Amino acid sequence: MKRALPALVLVLATSACTSAVSGTAKPLDGNLAVVNGPGTATALDAVKTAAEAVFSYDSTNPAAWEKAAGDNVTGDAKTQLTTLFEDVRKNPRPVRLTTRVLRSAALELAGDRVQALAALQQVNGATKALATVAFTAVRGDGHWRISDIKVNPALPPLTTRPDDGGPVGLRDSALAGARADATALFTVDRADPEGSYARAEAVIAEPLLSDYRAKKAAFLQGVHDNGTGVAVPALVAGLTTVTAEKASALLFTTLKVTNATGTTDKPLTVTLDLVREGGVWKATRIEAVTAS
């Protein structure tokens, strides 16, 4: 039996599918990710099942992978998946790749289409790795199929609505807060380490705040000694839970890390917990998602 991920049990205090306007229920439209809790959970569970099937491969049974791809993939994703697995399928050594979705969040849910951010743990023998992917899936004949695959995605933020007290505005407010907080936390201006620290300190709350303050001296000394700067060119974020005062998000970015030797890309996937204080969303916990 398929089960929705526990992290996707959504706790919106308002209705999942309607918004109260002048005492009447008005159906919501557009992006209903998180807002429609049951629909989001069902779509993400389907993406999880499909992703784990098509991103796993056993070289002793290639027909099983081909069947999984045929059952769970459509459109551009067919070519994308074939390209991604070209070297794996040609590898003369035995391959038994198993993939598991560690975390996922819906970025957009509209009708029979969902876009999801997923952190995948991949294991082949003693080798473990993390892959973060943005999947688009479409529903037809009652079955969800992956239609687009973007590894290490760099996606523009979706159009948001003002926080008018309704569920969509609440979600979009929390998402904007998550992106702003993460950008402030990850960005390091090596010419202004004090300013970098201050900007990060301004967007965090307890218990993260005490920990951050305790490490201030080490942070400043590290920037001074290593001359390291960090830029956040793009950040993809999706909520997993949200209430009027608390939220959790899954985020991915490819940091641009610059030091004396040059600039390198560092993919980073994290979960971020937030609390709303005085109308402002602040980070209370941040944890890197890693293969374990």
Structure overview:
It is a single chain. This protein has 292 residues and is an alpha+beta fold. The chain folds into two domains: 6-151, Nuclear Transport Factor 2, Chain: A; 167-288, Nuclear Transport Factor 2, Chain: A (Roll), CATH 3.10.450.540. Helix content is 31%, strand content 38%. The protein contains eight helices and twelve strands. The chain has helices at 37-54, 62-72, 76-84, 86-90, 167-186, 193-201, 208-214, 216-226; strands at residues 18-21, 24-27, 57-58, 96-110, 113-124, 127-140, 143-151, 229-231, 235-242, 246-259, 262-277, 280-288. Strands 3-4-5-6-7 form a five-stranded antiparallel sheet, sandwiched between helices. Strands 8, 9, 10, 11 and 12 form a five-stranded antiparallel sheet that branches. A hairpin with a 2-residue loop joins strand 4 (96-110) and strand 5 (113-124). The two termini are 26 Å apart.
CATH fold topology of the largest domain: Nuclear Transport Factor 2, Chain: A
Please report the first level of CATH classification, the CATH class of the largest domain. Answer: Alpha Beta
| CATH architecture identity of the largest domain | Roll
Give the tally of β-strands.
12
Q: Point out poorly predicted stretches.
A: 1-26
Radius of gyration: 21 Å
> How far is it from the N-terminal to the C-terminal residue, by CA?
26 Å
Major β-sheet annotation: 5 strands, antiparallel
Instruction: Give the CATH superfamily of the largest domain.
Output: VirB8 protein
Q: How do the strands line up in the largest sheet?
A: 3-4-5-6-7
The outline comes out as globular
Average pLDDT number: 89
Strand residues, percent: 35-45%
